[in-house]
């Protein structure tokens, strides 16, 4: 089995995808949730069966401290109640890594606990952050097969 190829082209592809998603006009998004501090919108994806989500809010804190709660790392387990474990398997840059995580079962385990391996990328953009991940296919020994 092959190891993960050079991550630079994948990081560049994800950055371009993030910028493309960010430039989608406001009229194409539908509000999914609004609170006094944040708003979440969604729109059907044209690339996969599911939705794209966009969230916006203002948090008064140090930017790097906020980023530590968004990108993969130990703080993610503090707020993401569906995530039961997370391991950063490989870090390429501060904003780019491969992570393996498991989610809790839902609806009395009708939806079974699941394990995922993602390539995660976070970048600064204008006055904020853009972040996304892409699933990786992997073998039982967690060497990567395809992206």
Structural commentary:
With 147 residues, the chain is α+β, with helices and mostly antiparallel strands. The chain has helices at 7-22, 63-70, 76-79, and strands at residues 30-34, 38-44, 51-57, 83-93, 96-103, 114-125, 128-135, 137-138, 144-146. It has three helices and nine strands. The strands form three sheets. The protein has a four-stranded antiparallel beta sheet. It is globular, with a radius of gyration of 16 Å. The two termini are 13 Å apart. Residues 140-147 have low confidence and may be disordered.
The helix/strand series, from N terminus to C terminus, equals HEEEHHEEEEEE
Helix content: 10-25%
What gyration radius follows from the Cα positions, in whole Å? 16 Å
Number of helices: 3
Secondary structure: number of strands: 9
Major sheet: 4 strands, antiparallel
Distance between the termini: 13 Å
User: Approximately what portion of the residues adopt beta-strand conformation?
Assistant: 35-45%
Give a nutshell description of this structure.
The chain is an alpha+beta fold and 147 residues long. The protein is built from three helices and nine strands; from the N terminus they run H-E-E-E-H-H-E-E-E-E-E-E. The protein is globular.
Key features of this structure:
147 residues, alpha+beta, four-stranded antiparallel β-sheet, 3 helices, 9 strands, 19% helix, disordered C terminus
